[in-house]
Write a structure and sequence with these properties.
five-stranded antiparallel sheet; five-stranded mixed sheet; 822 residues; alpha+beta
């Protein structure tokens, strides 16, 4: 096909493209690559399938979609001027169309049309623009439904089943000459509606009530219900063809009449320009960075606190998967946050690979071995791990507490929380924030408006009763989660987040590090049995202090309180009273208060005085009076104790329950082994087997890289060459029927060998049929180089490389009419 010949089909239009343009199509619509099309015709066929077209339409912005919708209601093919007129109108300003809108549309239309052409939704020259048939079927109106533009069917479509007598009545009422040819009648009526002057005269003669009826239908929906005895205004409109019957009770405003009433515009409000993201506040960038850094540190500490609380084995997993409502409430109480926020932290830890199921028979959630490595990192690096995982995760914590399509509740860590659109929406929201000046906090409504313009068809199906589409809800959750995670500070994007998006985690950590206070190696002990940590603590100090004391309050400074239970917890972990005294003296900037020393000595003196073992379990103590006191206490009834000896009691409950029961009674027992040694319980001993972070659920096929695109384009080109190349007829043989158009060539083994050997000697190219080891047949164009040992080595134009083929897998050969591979 010559370069100046207009394409007659989409396949010819694609065949005329250069390799870069084909690569752009495959990159924009990666679903066309699965599998790689055999030739251009297959590529065009696949590009016209309904699923692929719908996916391509969903990725168009508002104006590109409006352009496609305008083409869907235009004649096929449509010249560029007609398309422009449908978007700008015919110049009759009705008060809703700004003067500068036409120039904005004219400026934006070439770009929108280029996008549609690149994605193979539109093809043809500017004077013969064609929307692919499938897209026209999706976007164009039909007798069953209106188009997205609100326009109804054409006069020809609406009158296709109308009787000739009824057509004559309409022509007579409209003052048109009678004709017995239905086609001429439809043409005359269509010409009336498209004639500005005659249509104006007709509407001037219409009753005022009839014009009110048209006002309600003109911008859609164009259908209306009528009674068997319609009102005079409706009857006038029906008699003059402005309302055409679709059924006995339904009428429609034909497209030509609606376009006249709309001043020629297909859309009420064309949107050639994206709406701007407006600011609600302009803050000091340094204050924004400081606020975001403080929240980033809080995020790291919150995730660490959550996982520490599940060190000994976290909550059980529901049979259907996920975390129960009760366990989520427990986590929220422990973190002192609302339940939706607790769900976010739980899901974030899971997405980062720090939390997983332990895989045991009694399956529970627990920290993974990766958590220990993460906890050893500096705070800024821990934050970049969390932020990177959040950006890529398809897990959507905002859905927790809602319902799925079957009405079942969605639980945290459940299997139904993946939404493939989440990563793209998060990145897009942050990109919009990054485009603003540093310190600018955006108006959320304008952010949502921008996202809806960029992807008007995505997530359009919202749950029943919810007027907000999924992408908008994810965008709102992104803004809230960004503030929780320290991505933003006081609503504006932080500098370290800009670095994370542009340069990567290392640069982000370098910018965040100076804003995070250095970990401290000391606390301030006070006489009221509390310790104040004036900032973040070094990890060994924080771990020991969390075992020795309970956190009483958080904030800029953390307050710890020492209690008998907390001291006993440290002793259970293997510490002695002397160790605790030395630890406090070494890490306190104030003298150790005397009440705290007394508390440690008193608990240590009683610690281990009672011993718990398995009988089911037993209690032993050298002091008989203590055992007598336990037996006399009514609170011990549930433990079902009985005396075995003066210094031993047996219980009918397990050792863990016996330990807990006696501790609730105010004692400080210690567990012992079968050999009588005290058992030391250390925090953080339970870990899951090695687990990888959950893989995000992809949204459609992945975007191919440049290498794959180049290989795919070469394969399509070569396959097209093999399918369209002109070849000589293969020699006839009684054993090998003649090749038919589109079929694999068929020759005998002897003829195949002789033809291949001759081509290797002359250096000419051949067209062959080939069946691989999997039984898949294909056509190829090869230039044989060497034939020996039952194999032919040749340059394969299809694969653009030298390959070796077994001769017995070649179904047949045919010579090319001339050398078309040069």
């Amino acid at each position: 096909m010559g370069m100046t010949t207009p394409p007659r089909t989409l396949a010819e239009a694609l065949r005329a493209r250069d390799d870069e343009s084909l690569a752009g199509l495959l990159s924009a619509r990666p679903d066309l690559l699965n599998p790689v099309p055999g030739d251009i015709t297959q590529l065009a066929t696949r590009a016209g399938t309904r699923a692929s077209v719908v996916r391509a339409l969903e990725h168009l912005d508002k104006f590109a979609l409006q352009t496609a919708e305008a083409l869907a209601v235009a004649a096929d093919p449509a010249p560029y001027g007609t398309l422009l007129g449908l978007l700008t109108g015919d110049g009759r300003d009705d008060g809703e169309h700004r003067d500068d809108a036409g120039s904005a549309i004219a400026d934006a239309l070439p770009g929108a049309l280029a996008t549609l052409r690149e994605q193979a939704l539109v093809w043809g020259e500017d004077e013969r623009l064609r929307l692919v048939r499938t897209a026209r079927e999706i976007l164009a109106p039909s007798p069953q439904h209106a188009s997205p533009t609100g326009l109804g069917p054409t006069v020809a479509e609406a009158t296709s089943g109308m009787s000739p007598g009824r057509l004559q009545e309409i022509l007579a009422s409209a003052g048109l000459p009678a004709t017995h040819d239905p086609v001429s009648a439809v043409t005359a009526l269509s010409a009336l509606f498209t004639d500005r002057a005659r249509m104006g005269e007709l509407l001037d003669s219409a009753p005022a009530e009839a014009l009110s009826v048209l006002d309600r239908l003109v911008w859609g929906p164009p259908y209306g219900e009528v009674t068997p005895n319609p009102t005079p205004p409706v009857k006038w409109l029906r008699d003059h063809g402005l309302l055409l019957p679709v059924s006995t009770r339904t009428v429609v405003l034909p497209r030509e009449a609606a376009l006249h009433l709309r001043a020629g515009r297909a859309h009420r409000v064309p949107e050639p320009r994206p709406p701007a993201v407006e600011a609600v506040a302009n803050r000091d960038p340094q204050a924004v960075d400081s606020a975001a850094a403080g929240q980033a540190l809080l995020a790291v500490n919150t995730v660490e606190e959550l996982l520490k609380s599940w060190n000994g084995g976290g909550p059980p997993i529901l049979r259907a998967g996920g975390l129960s409502v009760r366990e989520l409430k427990k986590a929220a109480t422990a973190l002192e946050v609302p339940e939706p926020v607790a769900a976010f932290w739980v899901e974030l830890a899971y997405a980062a690979g720090l939390l997983a199921s332990d895989g045991e028979a009694d399956e529970r959630y627990a920290p993974t071995p990766a958590y220990d490595d993460w906890a050893d990192l500096p705070a800024q690096e821990r934050w970049t791990r969390l932020a990177t995982a959040w950006l890529a995760a398809t897990r959507t914590p905002g859905l927790v507490g809602g319902q799925d399509a079957k009405g079942r509740a969605l639980s945290a860590l459940g299997p139904e929380l993946d939404r493939s659109a989440a990563p793209e929406v998060r990145h897009r929201v942050l990109a919009l924030l990054a485009a603003l000046e540093p310190g600018t906090a955006p108006d959320p409504e304008t952010v949502l408006a921008r996202l809806r313009w960029e992807r008007p068809l995505r997530g359009a199906a919202a749950p029943a009763g919810n007027t907000t589409d999924l992408r908008s809800r994810i965008a709102l959750w992104t803004l809230n989660e960004s503030e929780l995670l320290g991505i933003t500070g006081r609503g504006a994007l932080a500098a370290h987040t800009r670095a994370l998006l542009d340069a990567g985690p290392a640069e982000a950590a370098a910018l965040l590090a100076p804003l995070i206070p250095e970990p401290l190696d000391h606390v301030l002990l006070q006489a009221d049995l509390t310790a104040v940590a004036p900032g973040p603590l070094e990890r060994p100090l924080a771990d020991m202090l969390s075992a020795l004391a309970d956190i009483e309050s958080k904030g800029g400074a953390t307050v710890y309180r020492f209690t008998p239970g907390s001291v006993r917890r440290a002793l259970d972990a293997g510490q002695s009273a002397a160790d605790l005294h030395a630890f406090l003296a070494a890490h306190s900037r104030t003298p150790v208060p005397q009440p705290l020393s007394y508390l440690i000595d008193d608990v240590a003196r009683r610690h281990g005085h009672l011993r718990i073992g398995a009988a089911s379990s037993y209690v032993r103590c050298d002091d008989e009076a203590v055992l007598n006191e336990i037996l006399a206490d009514k609170r011990s009834a549930t433990l079902r104790l009985r005396r075995l000896a003066p210094t031993a009691l047996a219980a009918q409950v397990d050792p863990a329950s016996l330990l807990e029961g006696l501790r609730d009674m105010g004692y400080a027992p210690a567990a012992e082994s079968a050999e009588g040694d005290v058992l030391i319980t250390r925090a953080g001993a339970r870990r899951t087997p090695p687990r990888t972070a959950p893989v995000p659920v992809p949204e459609g096929p992945p975007v191919p890289d440049a290498t794959l695109l180049g290989a795919a384009v070469r394969a399509v080109r070569a396959g097209d060459t093999a399918a369209t190349v002109v070849r000589k007829d293969a020699p006839e043989s009684p054993d090998a029927p003649a090749a038919t158009s589109g079929a694999l060539p068929r020759t005998t083994s002897a003829e195949t060998l002789a033809t291949v050997q001759a081509a290797a000697m002359t250096g000419s190219a051949l067209w062959i049929g080939y069946v691989n080891a999997d039984g898949a047949a294909s056509q190829r164009v090869i230039a044989p180089v060497r034939v020996e040992g039952g194999f032919v080595t040749a340059y394969d134009h299809t694969a653009d490389e030298v390959r070796t083929y077994p001769l017995h897998r070649i179904t047949g050969v045919a010579e090319l009419a001339d050398d078309q591979t040069a």
